[in-house]
Every structure is written in structure tokens, then in C-alpha cells.
User: Fold this.
Amino acid sequence: MNRVCIVCEGATEVEFVKGCLAPHLMDHGVSACPFILRAPSGGHRGGRVSVEGLLFSDVEQFQYVLDGWDAGVRQRLIAIRAQFPTPEDINNSRETAPSRRILAALPDGGYNKTEHGPVIAEAIGLATIRRHCPQFDAWVARLEAWGNG
Assistant:
């Protein structure tokens, strides 16, 4: 069994690795351990692809955010997704990061990154995320190959 440390942006990504990615990689002979990398200032360093961006692989699964889900939220999330070739492309600036877009689409207090993000990701499933996110898919395939080799 090969072990790999996955550098995460924050707690949401850690939970995503623990709940979605690590169990999948274990089936391929890879033990994945999430780790948060802190900047010299003590804050988190942003990543290239955020978990929130991956959630746009299937906006219907936002229904698990029960406190804020309705037809208007659904339409706003669909409109955001429609602006980009892939969910990975949504992460184009700090001001328009996927998490900020999600927070703007839902009513105040309706979305909690660390609570809802991993639940939505699990509902979407790794196969769907990989199908819609080619860079993420290629990265996961490389991790799988480490265990299959």
C-alpha cells in the first residue's frame, strides 16, 4: 500500500478527501491523508481547484442544503455553471470563487462550506465529478496508478 499526503486548502477539502477520495483510493491500494498547508501568516493557501467548484458537477445535489434550497437557488446555480466549460473553470478569481458564488446564490446562512460541501460531494459521487472535471479526473487517475503499479 502506497501512502500519499494530499495538501488541502481548508477544512472542506479535508472532509472531501476523508469522505470521498480516500475510500476510493484505498480500493486502488493508495492510503490518502489530508493535510492543510498554512501560509507563513498562519492563514490557508488557496488551491487551484476548490471542492466548491467540483460541486457544480451536479447542481441538483444542492437540494441537501435544506435550509435554502428552492427553484430560485436552483436556477442561479444552473446559470453559474452554464457560464463555464467545466466546473473547474469556475475558480477564476478570489472575488468570484465558487464558495462565494454559492453563498450568493443561497439565502444568508443557508450554506455552510464544511457542513454542506462534503455532503453534496458525496451525493454527487466521485464518478460524476470526474466525468465533468477533466483536470481532477487526471489527477485522481495518477493517484490510482501509484497504487496499481
Observations:
- DSSP finds seven helices and two strands in the chain.
- The CA atoms of residues 68 and 85 lie 26 Å apart.
